[in-house]
């Protein structure tokens, strides 16, 4: 074990921020009760699932951005192997749900299967750049906001703005750019969900094996241990193993599918929030191609939107996790990292609309739904990561060390 890892393990845990924990619990109860009284029964359930997602993401420091960055910069594939486990468990759970095709409430269960075309390639690539400059992916932005990382509020604001601009340009990218039909390993090949599951598991095992081969060649430093409690207290305080978080995230994504009929997503809510704001400022939002046939959401309460409720839950869950660990604190913002957050947020928001989602909806949800576009999204986002590693120093952002476990 390295000296750094030993030092990290000896570092004591911070005392819990009890007042903040109480505030978080009260807000969670009020939100759940409010949704139960004013919305469909699905909404309070999704709020609880979102809290679980945020709690898990923060406790494990489970990163999508950092996994790509760490592999590209030093050849450390530990986090990417956690991704493969998460995707494997998700596919195991999604396959029977999608094959049966119904939810807990009798509605249709549908995965995220989207076209493969220029919009996907461009969108995923610029999203990959954006998440390395903005300091986090879509889920990472939410849980960093919940944990009090001040600069991520800037990232979130411009993520929303970028998503809204992408919605305004949606027709051009969908109608004017070349695109192939959506391709599902399950329904487009004749393999069925059983065959698609076997193929997916083989792909994940192959990717994990490749990361091990890369590590043997480059011999990168291992990720440092993060202080944690012992026994059952570890559920609430300290770090979780990445593999544990991977399994929990897969289970919660499957519960999301069973509850609302689609997998976990993040960025459609950003587009909704920004479009509502644009509509209030006088823009003809209903004419945008993105909203054609679905303008009801523009005039309904944001609490009726399932993705919005999930996002609020993620922020709240991360807040509870950070306060329980004594880690909630507002960090300093500099001019350079603010500029990086502005650019990163805009690129992620715009890229997510072009690419049919982000690291959650397109990568996690798409691959778990057996869609080819999820794999292509991952490849293109890693490509954007390589370019972003050259850009980070311009904003005072270092090429990270393997010990950096934040998203």
From TrEMBL:
Transmembrane segments annotated in the record for this chain: 20-39, 45-64, 85-106, 151-173, 193-212, 240-258, 309-330, 342-364, 370-389
Locations listed in the record: Cell inner membrane
Keywords: Cell inner membrane, Cell membrane, Membrane, Transmembrane, Transmembrane helix, Transport
GO CC annotation: plasma membrane
Keyword Glycoprotein attached: no
Any one Pfam family match given in the protein's UniProt record, by short name: Sulf_transp
Membrane association type: Multi-pass membrane protein
InterPro entries: Sulf_transp_TsuA/YedE
Main subcellular localisation: membrane
PANTHER family: INNER MEMBRANE PROTEIN YEDE, SULPHUR TRANSPORT DOMAIN-CONTAINING PROTEIN
Similarity section: Belongs to the TsuA/YedE (TC 9.B.102) family.
The name this protein goes by in its record: Sulphur transport domain-containing protein
Source species of the chain: Alkalicoccobacillus plakortidis
Classification lineage: Bacteria, Bacillati, Bacillota, Bacilli, Bacillales
